[in-house]
Amino acid sequence: MADKKVDDSWKESVEKEKSVPAAGPSAPAPKSAHEHGPDCAHGHEHGAETGAELPPQSDFSIFLSTLGMQALSALGEIPDPGTNLKRTDLPTAHYLIDTLILLLEKTKGNLTPDEDALLGGMLYELQMKFVEKSKAPRA
Fold this sequence. Notes:
Layout: H1 9-19, H2 33-36, H3 47-50, H4 60-74, H5 90-106, H6 113-135
C-alpha cells in the first residue's frame, strides 16, 4: 500500500493563531465614539468605551482550525479548555468530523488552495485518529 502524504499545515495555522493578537495583524483599528459621534446610531457598543475585548477577525481558516481543535479535544488528543483534562468523546468527535466533511462538500470549488489543503489535511488526520481511538480497547 502506498504511503499517503500527511498535510500538517493546519497545525502550523493553529500555532500562528495562538501567537497573533485577538484582532489579528491586519484588522483595522476600532473606531472611537468620537469618530461616530456621541450618539452612535449603529446599534453597537464600542470596545474602548466599555473595556470589552473586541472579537477576533472572522477568517475561514480560523473557523476550520476551531472545529479541528474541538475534534482533537473530543478525541482526547488535547485537553478540554474548560476542564484542562483529556477525555475521549467519540460521538462528539464523529459529529465534528462529519461537520468538516459537510463543509468540504458544500464549499468544493470555492476554497483557496490553502483552505482546501488545510481542510483536506485536517480531515485526514482527524479520521485516522478517530479510527485509531475507535479500535482501542475501552478502559
